[in-house]
Amino acid sequence: MKRILLLGGVTEALAIARTLGPQHIYSLAGIGRVPTDLTCQVRVGGYGGADGLAQFIREQGIDLLLDATHPYAAQISHNAAQAARACAIPCWALRRPAWQPQTGDDWREVADWAELTQALKPYRRPLFTLGREPLQHLHEIPPGQFWTLRALDVYPGNERCEVIGARGPFHREDERELFQRRQIDVLVSKNSGSTATEPKLEVARELGVPVLVLKRPVLPAVDRELGGVSEVLFALGNLI
Ligand code: NAP
Fold it and tell me: Which of 53, 76, 182, 240 could make a disulfide contact with 47, Cβ separation 3.0–4.6 Å?
């Protein structure tokens, strides 16, 4: 029997954690909800970089590191690959497939905040679904633009930005109502590939609203890439 350290923070990671016995550890950064009903151990908080993570792996006698973090959480994924290498244990990763544009979609990829700001110029009422990052840029909102910003929790906005706190899964009817009520003329999104947040893209397609998609970060090579929960559970097989 192997001892697994599961790095989580997304829905699929929690689903995997629910199958793990008490010798395994489910690790969370501590920004979202912490489950209290798991059989496995739960650890909350960072390790202090790749070296700290490697130290924890050695101290706890971990045999397998399973990175099931968000596709945009690149730092922890790089730390995981580096720490596993340093400890000579395998690193597996759940790598969610990206969403692909469909007929009727008007998507444009942007590399970073500077490109995004340029691409937003023709629009008046963007809906940001990037998490908290846009909060740092509230003072940059140009006259004539009014932002709607959706994050996990509510934060103060300003006279040109309303912040909505909401957690998925989201439903198409509610997303359509949000787009119409806020008169959204452009959607700003990561390409998370999550079914829980996909309805906003369906509504953008339906209403002819363009989407500015923040490029996925480059993630490190790992020993094994798995595409979803069932693939992970099959791969873990009798290891757990
Ligand atoms: P990040 O930039 O890759 O990581 C920042 C730091 O947070 C890491 O260096 C690490 O601190 C700590 N950390 C991240 N995930 C951890 C985990 N599972 N267990 C222990 N420490 C962890 O990540 P982020 O983009 O800030 O996201 C933070 C967490 O939220 C991730 O676990 C991710 O799965 C989840 N999440 C992120 C997004 C997103 O859009 N980025 C969306 C949904 C959920 P140390 O260096 O001190 O170890």
Answer: 53
Do 115 and 41 share a domain, yes or no?
no
Confidence of residue 31 (pLDDT cuts 50, 70, 90): confident
In-domain check, residue 102:
no
CATH number at residue 88: 3.40.50.720
Mean pLDDT computed over 196-219: 97
Q: Are residues 159 and 78 in the same domain?
A: no
Q: What are phi and psi of 230, to 5 degrees?
A: -65, -35
170 shares its domain with 189: yes
Contact residues of ligand 1, CB 6 A cut-off: 7-10, 27-29, 31, 46-49, 52-53, 69-70, 72-76, 79, 131, 190
- Residue nearest atom 26 in ligand 1 by C-alpha distance: 73
Tokens of 128: 């940001």
d(CA 156, CA 233): 41
Pocket test for ligand 1, best of 76, 82, 190, 195 (most atoms within 8 A of CB): 76
Closest ligand 1 atom to the C-alpha of 52? 48
147, β-bridge pairs:
161
Please tell me the predicted confidence (pLDDT) of residue 192. Answer: 96
Distance 29 CA to ligand 1 centre (A): 5
Range of the domain at 150: 107-214
Give the whole-angstrom CA distance, residue 139 versus residue 142. Answer: 9
- pTM, rounded to two decimals: 0.94
Closest protein CA for atom 27 of ligand 1: 73
Number of domains observed in the structure of the chain: 2
**Bridge partner residues of 65 (DSSP):** 5, 91
Which residue has a Cα nearest atom 40 of ligand 1?
72
Residue 55 falls inside a structural domain: yes
Shared-domain flag, residues 119 and 208: yes
